[in-house]
Amino acid sequence: MSLTEWRIQLSLVALAVIPYANALRAGFVFDDLAMVVENPMVQSAALPTAAVFSRPYEPGSLYRPLVFLSFWLNERLAPGESWAFHATNLGFHAAATLLAYRLARVLLSDRAAAFLAATLFAVHPVHTEAVTGIAGRSEPMAAIGVLASLLCLHRSFASVVPRRWRAVAALFYVFGLLCKESAFVCIPLAALLRWHVRGDNPLALLRRPQGAPELLALLLAGAAYLALRFCLLGSLTLPVAPSWLDNPLAHTNAPVRIATAAVVLADYVRLLVLPLSLSADYSYDAVPLVFHPGDARLPAALSLASSCALLAWSVRPRVPAVATGLLFFLLAFAITANIFFPIGTIKAERLLYLPSFGFFLAAAALARGLLLPERKVGIAVCSAVLLALALRTWVRNEDWQSNLALFEATVEAAPRSAKAHHNLAVALHHAGRRAEASLEFRRALALYPEYEEAAFGIGRMYEERGILEGARHWYEKALALNPRFNVARLNLATVLYNSGRYAEAEKQFAEALAREPENPRLLAGLGLARLALGDTSAARQLLERAARLDAENPEIRAALEFARRAARRETHL
Predict the structure, then answer these.
(1) Are the C-beta atoms of residues 531 and 504 closer than 8 Å to each other?
(2) How far apart are CA 245 and CA 93, in angstroms?
(3) H/E/C letters for each residue in 24-78?
(4) Which residue, 210, 226, 272, 400, has most beta carbons within 10 Å?
(5) Strand ranges (DSSP E) for 348-479?
(6) What is the DSSP-derived secondary structure letter of residue 239?
(7) What are the pLDDT digits (tens) for 208-240?
């Protein structure tokens, strides 16, 4: 490698890290808490290899064993230190940036254009969810697998030992799949690579992969992964459809799903061109569904797609990489676009991580070939754009410093997201700002009247203020929306008990206990309710079971001692 190449790659590492440096101050926020802090696999002292490879992570049925192993290793090296997790994310992002540069060199055959594409990839603020969010680590890890696999396939085209490079490409592909299932797009991207380099028809290659041995190797690896996924999850896609709140497209017909997905793809382009308003959540109703062709967003999205296709076709003789980049962008979304099947979310900025490379590839090729032929002008314009993007990234990272900061920004960017208002309410509650939390819970419920967790949150606000009748009303509303909401039933039973309505409390405790027979809080609650109703023997048995399950709980121990004294008094009498 020449000295110039070394300098370029060191520059790319710096560009990938410096705009995200303030992310090292961020804590564990949003999904980081469930995936890292509260995840038994990550917190386990023993290496959880069998656990992470043999079962998916719930909720969401996520099968990403290598990501969770990386979390476990982070926790062992720096227990509880969020900066170490963020630093690892930055390392993965820097590695993905270097691979993006190498692939851009292959596809653009121009060092300056490749450097521009890679720098756009490095500094763009749309990647903050994937890089600054610890839980977003699966995106850069999967992208590393895909990009490295494509580079190895390219090496196999001219190698005297192509089988070796195909084998390495297949290994990187499997690495990507074990980080995130969306890495499956490596197969169509490999066909696109061969079309760009050799001129082979990609559709013909996918129909007859024996004509391209490297594609056959990927197909075999992909088939093995799908078989493993089916054995573990019982489904090739999501085994259980996401809720309407998370992705309403999972509950609509195909025309509505495809039309809305087209609008979302167009909005992704807007985020790449002008990333002013960024959000960590786009759940219901941040993206209104497209129910009829007259929706103004659909013609606008189709016009944008037509314009991009026309541009790619018109400049292809001079700048063929524009078409390649735009096709890369579309193909990289094949799994996550909600077009062929619904996924767990209607829209998410983290999903742009790998596809954005194709867009930046096309933009760099167009800028180099047509728009900025003058070197000085081109350097000035590109530097200004990159500086603006890097500054936006730095500012956006500040939103990820805490849950409160993140969801205040999310509500501002996506004011119609019920989930964003709910999450902000939870963060406000943790900050002790109960009045504001109650208001946000009500806003979430107004946006999505079936939101049982928002009703439950309002009930908690009433209970903590000592307004038991108001708490009872909202807990009952939460249970009316979801009768299996056991936490709401526990709280309702507790409110009834504290109100002196022991028979009603006993009924609610017993119904909740039928669903969770080993829950010590439910056992203790039912025991206290029966003690209040005079059934001392049954109360003592229930409290003894609760104490065995949670021996360190002082409240359960005190209740058990109270029941034992009551039993002794009855015996004495």
Answers:
(1) no
(2) 31
(3) HHCCCCCHHHHHHHCCHHHHCCCCCHHHHHHCCECCCCECCHHHHHHHHHHHHHC
(4) 400
(5) none
(6) S
(7) 665 577 788 898 999 999 999 888 888 877 778
